[in-house]
TrEMBL record:
Keyword Ribosomal protein part of the UniProt annotation: no
Entry superkingdom: Eukaryota
Family as reported in the entry's similarity comment: Belongs to the glycosyl hydrolase 17 family.
Alphabetized PANTHER family for the sequence: GLUCAN ENDO-1,3-BETA-GLUCOSIDASE BG1-RELATED-RELATED
GO biological process terms, semicolon-separated: carbohydrate metabolic process
Keywords per UniProt: Glycosidase, Hydrolase
MF term (GO), any: hydrolase activity, hydrolyzing O-glycosyl compounds
SUPFAM superfamilies for this protein: (Trans)glycosidases
Keyword Ribonucleoprotein found: no
Listed InterPro entries: GH, Glyco_hydro_17, Glyco_hydro_17_plant
Family matches, as Gene3D superfamilies: Glycosidases (3.20.20.80)
Protein name per UniProt: Glucan endo-1,3-beta-D-glucosidase
């Protein structure tokens, strides 16, 4: 389960549940983590105070910080905050239980085919990747075939929904075949990570989902198809670059967010209706 910020009521409810948690630090809070003292206080208040009842798996320091986006003001704050939170976790003796990282997304990479993936701004991302690699930490990545398909002029909806087994995109550089957009996006990120010194880094898919309303191809049928096929796919297939292993993946999101800003589709990624808490789809994990 992913919490985007420490919510005391939610953390209390998770006590004894055995549910593993990604706990987030929202971008505006990065400023408070620029010192060792600030990071130690954050870890004490939001992690240690809830242990051992809550099982923390990752701390996501910042979300989709990108020099080319509205999150650009946080660029200079991100790596120091990651380092300080990691050191606070080490000082607390929790480094074998909790891994510190940041959540990035596909917009920070470029290149095709997937083997040619690289970071658009290596000066920003490369030091982060090298720090993660040096400390055996994963990278969290938000992977959305919905948006990649929507903004790609060569749209192929079945390829994005895992329903086009006969559509194959070949990567001639590494002689790999891609039969769905999710794998292509994830391996593009892997290539970017590897080219920046992160050959040993595992990528955790910290978000993936499909909207059910108010946008092109945003229907309940397409959303249900995507979620069902994604769940089945990540259980053990791996990607062409990283074959034969499960892909740790978090579905976005638990509930529709009727108050969320941005494009109308942003309100409709939920697996459950917030009004009655009933599932929108019949999913099996």
């Amino acid at each position: 389960m992913r919490l985007y910020e420490p919510v005391p009521a939610a953390l209390q409810a998770l006590r004894g549940s055995n549910i593993e948690v990604i706990l987030g630090v929202q971008n505006p809070q990065l400023q408070s983590l620029q010192t060792a003292e600030g990071a130690s206080a954050w870890v004490r208040d939001n992690v240690q105070n809830y242990m051992p009842g809550v099982k923390f798996r990752y701390i996501a320091v910042g979300n989709e910080v990108d020099p080319n986006s509205g999150n650009a003001p946080f660029v200079g704050l991100l790596l120091p905050a990651i380092k300080n939170v990691h050191q606070a976790i080490v000082d607390a003796g929790l480094q074998d239980q909790i891994k510190v990282s940041t959540a990035t997304y596909s917009a920070v990479v470029q290149g095709f085919p997937p083997s040619q993936g690289s970071f658009k701004n290596k000066d920003f991302m490369e030091p982060i990747i090298q720090f993660l690699a040096q400390n055996n930490l994963p990278l969290l990545a938000n992977i959305y075939p919905y948006f990649s398909n929507l903004y790609n002029s060569k749209k192929d909806l079945p390829y994005a929904l895992f329903t086009a087994p006969n559509v194959v995109v070949t990567d001639p550089v590494e002689n790999r075949e891609y039969r769905n957009l999710f794998d292509a996006l994830l391996d593009t990120m892997y290539s970017a990570v590897e080219s920046s010194g992160g050959q040993n880094i595992e990528i955790v898919v910290s978000e993936s989902g499909w909207p059910s309303s108010d946008g092109a191809d945003a229907t309940p049928q397409n959303a249900e198809t995507y979620y069902k096929n994604l769940i089945e796919h990540v259980k053990g297939n791996g990607t062409p670059k990283r074959q034969g292993k499960a892909i740790e993946t978090y579905l976005f999101a638990m509930y529709d967010e009727n108050l969320k800003g941005g494009d109308a589709t942003e309100k409709f990624f939920g697996l459950f209706n917030p009004e009655n808490q009933q599932p929108k789809y019949q999913l099996s994990f």
